[in-house]
Write a structure and sequence with these properties.
With 216 residues, the chain is of the alpha/beta class. It is built from 8 helices and 8 strands, in the order E-E-H-H-H-E-H-E-H-E-H-E-H-E-E-H. The longest helix is centred in the middle third of the chain and has 20 residues, at 64-83. The chain is globular. This is HAD family phosphatase. It comes from Ruoffia tabacinasalis. Pfam families: HAD_2.
Length: 216
Amino acid sequence: MAKTELIIFDLDGTLVDSESVYQMGWATVLKDFGHNVEVADFELMRGKGRHHNNQYIKSYLGTDALVQEARNLREEYYFNALNNNEVQLMPGALELLEAAFEQGITLAVATSSYRDRGKATLDQFDLSKYFTYQVFGDEVENAKPHPEIYNKVLELAGVEADKAVAVEDSLSGLKSALDAQLTVYFVPEAEVSFDKDEKRIKRCNDLHEVKNALFK
């Protein structure tokens, strides 16, 4: 692999511990609609795009109108949690960003979150200053696991895939980055299993390990 010129980060579950808040938000909202759903059941929504996740919620609520109403309530739940400091950075996130920044490596974020929520999350932790490029879920036609979002970042940065790496936490994001021909530092927040025997997957326990692997 060539010298790393670009690191592309996922946001939710990778840099920011937000997935559990999303899942609790969905459980709370669906309970208000009369559906008792275990928080763990929302794990299959991790890293997926809005269309996929709306279809899952629709399996409970039945109509697009109710799905949109529920999503609006879930967004309100998330923003309240964000404003009340109930969303936290993942351990090692700031240290990794600062180390990469100090090395002069270009940084980007590629997130399934739409711009309004993604930007609010970045701003909450003063992270925008680290990222030269930010691509959000409403700025691509095809959500992860499609590679479009990673390909778009590579195109914006003018960097070849063999000079870039991704940092991801979900299987959906992993496939997206691999299909964009990126090496991926994979930090699964939840227990996952996959059958890929792929040299481009660098599995790590946390972002401290990612930092040590990149800057040893």
